Amino acid sequence: MSGIRGANTRPELAIRRALHRRGFRYRLHSPGVPGKPDLVFPARRAVVFVHGCFWHGHDCRFFRLPATRSDFWKEKIARNRARDAEVRALLTASGWRQMVIWECALRGRGAGAVEEVTGRVAAWLDSDSPFAELRGP
Q1: Which domains does the chain have, with CATH numbers?
Q2: Model pLDDT, residue 40
């Protein structure tokens, strides 16, 4: 468990690199923004979260509840989801636009997945849409 990261994960780094190549500049894990989002675009009043499917209880093929200590994991994931909802409400009340990129949007779809997802993120950043979510197939 000590090797599991909360920040600078592989999916997050891949998105950061691709967005930087496209010319986007951002802040990382800004403590002044509710939930300390993975990427903060202050001028666009937008934030991006890169969520791991297991840790946030996503309903995809990458989430499977462990057989051992299942009560602990149910509670843990339920708390994570409740915190996500609370952060979403705080950000909306503060006027921040939000995007959630799920790990499954990047995994298992070949080498072009990161560029495709990054293109969709770039399009969303240039739009006025208040919320977006990118999920796997």
Answers
A1: 10-134 (3.40.960.10)
A2: 98
Give the phi and the psi of residue 54 in degrees, each rounded to 5.
-70, -50
Query: How far is the C-alpha of 44 from the C-alpha of 14, rounded, in Å?
Result: 21
What's the rounded Cα separation, in Å, for the pair 60 and 102?
10
pLDDT higher than threshold 90 for residue 10: no
59 neighbors 103 (Cβ within 8 angstroms)? no
Please classify residue 60 by burial: count the beta carbons closer than 10 Å to its beta carbon, then call 0-12 exposed, 13-18 middle and 19+ buried.
Answer: middle
H, E, C per residue of 2-57: CCCCCCCCHHHHHHHHHHHHCCCCCEECCCCCCCCCCEEEHHHCEEEEEECCCCCC
Query: Which residues are CB-neighbours of 50 under 8 A, at least 6 positions away?
Result: 9, 11, 12, 15, 38, 39, 101, 103
Which of the four pLDDT bands, split at 50, 70 and 90, describes residue 13?
Answer: very high
User: pTM, whole model, 2 decimals?
Assistant: 0.91
